[in-house]
Amino acid sequence: xxxxTCGEDRAMNRNQSSMVEATNxxxxxxxxxxxxxxxxxxxxxxxxxxxxRYKARQLASWIYDKGITDFAQMTExxxxxxxxxxxxxxxxxxxxxxxxxxxxxxxxxxxxxxxxGEKIETxxxxxxxxxxxxxxxxxxxxxxxxxxxxxxxxxxxxxxAGEIIxxxxxxxxxxxxxxxxxxxxxxxxxxxxxxxxxxxxxxxxGLSFAAKKITLSTAGIPPMIEKLAEEKLKxxxxxxxNVATDEKRNKLMPINKKYPLKELLDAVKYFVKQTKRxxxxxxxxxxxxxxxxxxxxxxxxxxxGIRCKINLIPYNxxxxxxxxxxxxxxxxxxxxxxxxxCPAVTLRWSKGEDILAxxxxxxxxS
Length: 366
Ligand code: SAH
Ligand code: SF4
What we know:
about 375 residues; TIM Barrel; 2 domains; 10-stranded mixed beta sheet; binds S-adenosyl-L-homocysteine; binds iron/sulfur cluster
């Protein structure tokens, strides 16, 4: 969008950017990007423009529910307000630059370019009537799990709330029914933007996804899990456990050195108690690393007494990494050991392996 403002308006722009704290890095010409802001931000902005704060809800509905990006089309708002908004703000989107369809199963990977040229990947997975979008929350990841492609690419920056939800809005035509935050990045280390994105997804003025259709996956950041437990959101939580002893987890997931299993499980128990909802433990099965009967035994012991489900994910190989997927026989033996010792066990063969769109295979090269 072209910045058409005169000198006086530019001065106004600078003042506006200080009004709304959650400014985005994608403001061409210093304008505020309204996508990714939410009702409380709009109220503040409208208040400072001398407008009635109740219009914040209308603005939210135009932007998210109706998907309008041109202020001229927001006919419910006065002409005067539309003009003011046009002078100081934009409704900007991330840009789709490439899509890759899996030949093996029904999944598709999308490459998006952000306003500063960074790139992220998003995956869509079709399973019967269910269409799941797998969202990224950061460009890269700072946690460096040794088996994960995203971990290998290092960390560039957090995504804004707008960049997180724009992955859904841009792919809206595909009839998305479920959202998982399991793409690139650690959502709980980008807490504020992720939370705002979740609020937008879960509100009827926003994208109207029921909370039970949204799952956040984390490598395990105990203070943030506890914080999430206090929020009024009823989304599902998944913990990437992956191995059941500190000794092994320290090697695979360096974050475990900072937050060992006891601390992680205490936070999980707090979450379950506080929210009265069970959680999912994800366990990526890697050949000769965490796939033995002893590993299964340790896992069932570790999670005893916690209201949970275990989701087993056979490893998706990543180029240049030394790990392999166990044989089908080993995977099934692991599952059969766990169930019925653990309350619920599911086995998920990832989709999109051939286009490197499966769990943990996302990596953008810039
Ligand atoms: N950072 C968050 C969310 C993104 S990773 C987290 O770690 O939970 C999403 C999931 O992919 C995690 O459960 C992770 O353990 C898994 N994963 C990572 N690399 C994988 C791979 N190569 N094959 C299968 N799953 C993988
Ligand atoms: Fe980051 Fe999750 Fe990959 Fe670990 S598994 S490096 S936390 S994205």
